[in-house]
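Task card 7
Instruction: Convert sequence to structure tokens.
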Amino acid sequence: MADNTELLQSLGIALGLGLLVGLEREWERNRTAGLRTFAFISLFGALSGMLAQAYGGWVMAAALVTVVALTVSGYLASLRNKDANPGLTTEIAMLVMFATGAITMMGHWMIAVVIAGSVMVLLQSKKSLHQLVRKIGENDLREIARLVLIGLVILPVLPNQSYGYEGVLNPFAIWLMVVLIVGISLAAYLASKFLGRSRGAAISGLLGGLISSTATTASAARRSMNPQSHASSLGVITLISAAVVFVRVIVEVMIVGPGVIKTVLPPLLAMMALAGAVAVVGYKLMMKSEVQPSEEPPPSELKGAVMFGLLYVLVLFAVSFAKEHFGQAGLFVVAAISGLTDMDAITLSTASLSNAGQLDATTAWRVIMTGGLANILFKAALVLGMGSRALIKPVLLGFAITFVGGVAILLLWP
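Output:
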């Protein structure tokens, strides 16, 4: 009974997924297959998979050949219609749903659901996807190809191992920073192009803060040097990403140091609220001063990203030197240097020590805050050294307000 129940569940899932995709095809003019056809195809795939388990893989091979033959004959028949769409989208979807039905019999129900859902979304999104492609120009495509090269071709082959002094040199981690800068810059450009400057800046800042606010700041600073760039939106991206850092810090403290939340969390929440208020005010001012944007070319960030990667290595050397020579006694010095490029390490380690009772909770949040303030200073230096004049003034003003407020919290919080 248990085996029969599982088989019936698999067949039911296959049938339901076929109906789901077929439902979308029913709205297509001159369709090769519709609701019932897709349901039969996925059900046929499930039955073929069940028979293959009993009689061998040749059953599945024969079933696949049969489906391919039926699909080809249906496609050829549709070509006789003058109004027919010569594309192969529906035919390929039929083959995918046959295979999806087959894997349900192997117990991969969740994978089958994800595949069928993806097929339906892709089929339904035909117009929006085509419109999106038309908006992407040749220069945009070149930069996307460059990102694919450095992120999907070069990055995976680099050794993810530590070399040199204190294991600082990790080719994979260093090149990952280069990929992040190029990727964040391109994502921010595309978001601004397709969503508008205001919404694009907000989304880019949020994502940049979650991924790497330092890389986001470096990317924005480099882009601001282009005369056709929009310094106001780049400044908002920078300020929002800086505020999101403290959201990430709070989440990490809640996960690693649940026993010290009552003491550690309130000052960090105050810092997050301050940075968030600065970002919101900057966003509002940008929307008020927004003018019709001129066409901005896609960013070409590879050279600047490589230079930042080299700077990142130098800072890592400084962090390792401080940890070796100052140790626990110089925890605040280590926090200040470590926080220059990465808030996660100092936050996680300090919260863990405090939660284990090896570090006072009051000292712990002050150490984390020191790292956060150092991070703001480092990003301010990046903007000052790499950004345009139009970017420097609003960003440094926002950073100054956040930094002064952070110092006040650090010194005056009871």
